[in-house]
Task: structure prediction
Amino acid sequence: MQMKKTILTITIISLGLIQVTFASLSNDCNILTDKKNTIPIDKMIEGMVNGYGAKWYADVLPAEAFKKALTNLKVYCCTQSFKKYCSADDINNKTTYYPKSAILFDHLLDVAIRRLDGITWLAYNLSPDPTGLERRTKITEIANSATGMVAKKIENLYTGYREWHIRTTMNTGTVIAGYKTNNIATLSLGDKYNTICQIVKEIYNTYASSAIIWSDIEANSFLNGCKRLVKERIERENGYVKILMVQKSNQLLDEGTKAYTKTYFVQEKLMALWNLIAKVKDVFETIIQQSPASKTCST
Result:
């Protein structure tokens, strides 16, 4: 039960993601409507999604996930001055979790990171990233297992998913192509996290109306803001796995101690009982041997 609580805590913390930009920046709400406002917002979104499906980065962020990012952008924009373009349903039909941002980049990144977490409900019930789902499933099975596990075994499992293939990640084209195969030996979950900022930027540039600052020099640039979020996410997951390693190894030690204690004391008690029975038997045999023969009626 305690382990399940830990998983839940980590997951809820993840819901704090993900927003890089600031309210003072220009916004992308205008991509949701035409200049004359003759096309409904949902029709605009549908048109963008239909055009997106054939894009080569759809393996990184599937069309359904791209649509969710646009929908969350719409939800936020319809709470701002842009709501004059929104229908009554758009204004009233609000979801609970989404970045409070008018910049599409934030919504694309939010959806992308949530899918990498490998938890369906956390990712707005979208299909999780297959590598993220595989890793999450294995870690959750270990956490919920009734038996303990050697810490090194957990560490070795996790290391495979977070390994950084530097040559692969130098080229986003290679990374995007690697999404087609779910093989951590060539493209790990760590590789995906470390390149998601750049790939989301490429997607954003295709549709955005706002110019964004993308520089290592600017402290508040989109690049640095995104890197900070990804770093925090990875560190949080590392912390969770460390907690898991300690708890499962302690559980294994406790199980071993109990098993040894049980075996030791049971054997000791059985031997003591056997010795007692043997002694009682010897006493009875002695009494029988020392007692006179019973008299019969004929004597």
The first helix runs from residue 2 to 14. The chain has a mean pLDDT of 78.
